[in-house]
Amino acid sequence: MTEVLSPDAKGIARAAALLSQGALVAIPTETVYGLAGDARSDQAVAAIYTAKGRPSFNPLIVHLAKTDQAALYAHVSDQARALMAAFWPGPLTLVLPLHDGAGLSPLVTAGLPSVALRQPAHRLAQALLTAFDGPLAAPSANPSGRVSSTTATHVLDGLSGRIAAVLDGGACTVGVESTIIGLADGPPRLLRPGGIGVEEIEGVLGQKLATAGEGITAPGQLASHYAPGAGVVLNATERPKGAIWVGFGPKCAGADLNLSVVGSLTDAACNLFDMLRKADALAGPGGQIAFAPVPRDGLGLAINDRLQRAAAPR
Ligand code: TXA
Ligand code: MG
């Protein structure tokens, strides 16, 4: 049985106690729900890979209570420091050179010489990290390759019975995962578009980001990801026959669902995974979901990235 914990002092204390015993707890963050375990425990981290059915070559993000804890686990460059000062706590993950003897389970980094770090902004995530008093490894709380979770109900749909508990913090406000920037080697690189726009990050660094080249992308960025049961097609400016049409903006008046009727990318990111799940339920087995075009600026880059992976051949 997976316990559902309330978003109060009692729920946080129970979540921290379970994590200290090496159990797994799904936790709300501002981006998506994370499936958290003690990042120092081989047993807890191995259990995360098992619960998700995640390939063990795909490393996890380590979540921190405080910005200055990054130096415990990684070598922090001036560029990393500038990005932390601008965007932490928040939806930004930095991949940095791993500190020798950092005390993290080697399973967290999948044996890489780098580590992904993030300080989440969510009130409950912060309270739990402080109560637990240690680093939490947390991938998105969904079975590997499937749609990410932005509510406790989504988490239970995919992982009920496989994890000890979920801390119910309601719906996530950002709705897409963190932006991942690689600073471990070479020029600063965009490894995954996410909750902070590339333009904002380039503004702080004062330079353009390199894009992920062959073989240096985040290992988890497999072509097919975020896959619902139904087929997905993109750039549908009208409803294809027999498909569930998910619109964006006021032009899509006849759509079954609309990511944002007023055309807000912030609202669309927040609604994305829930609408993907709803459209999947409406389309049914063997059905099809057709998404209207979404602009590619700001959060639109992350939304288009998730839609392309949802539509990729499986
Ligand atoms: O918003 C988020 O980032 C959420 C919340 C829970 O924090 N987490 C999340 O985790 O999206 P996950 O595991 O679904 O995605 C993490 C990505 C994967 O693509 C993984 O390959 C990449 O980060 N990653 C982790 N460590 C890395 C490293 N050392 N080098 C390159 N990529 C890394
Ligand atoms: Mg994920």
Automatic annotation (TrEMBL):
Catalytic class of the enzyme: transferase
Pfam families: Sua5_C, Sua5_yciO_yrdC
Keyword Mitochondrion listed: no
Catalytic activity annotation: L-threonine + hydrogencarbonate + ATP = L-threonylcarbamoyladenylate + diphosphate + H2O
GO biological process: regulation of translational fidelity; tRNA processing
Residue ranges of every copy of the YrdC-like domain listed in the record: 9-196
Entry keyword set: ATP-binding, Cytoplasm, Nucleotide-binding, Nucleotidyltransferase, Transferase, tRNA processing
SUPFAM superfamilies for the chain: YrdC/RibB (SSF55821)
Domain of life: Bacteria
Molecular function terms, GO-annotated: ATP binding; double-stranded RNA binding; L-threonylcarbamoyladenylate synthase; tRNA binding
Binding site for L-threonine: T31, A138, S178
Binding site for ATP: R54, N58, H63, R118, S140, S148, R192, Y226
Cellular component GO terms, alphabetical: cytoplasm
Subcellular localization, as worded in the UniProt entry: Cytoplasm
Enzyme Commission numbers on file: 2.7.7.87
Coiled-coil residue spans: none
Its job: Required for the formation of a threonylcarbamoyl group on adenosine at position 37 (t(6)A37) in tRNAs that read codons beginning with adenine.
Record-stated family: Belongs to the SUA5 family.
Record's protein name: Threonylcarbamoyl-AMP synthase
Originating organism: Neogemmobacter tilapiae
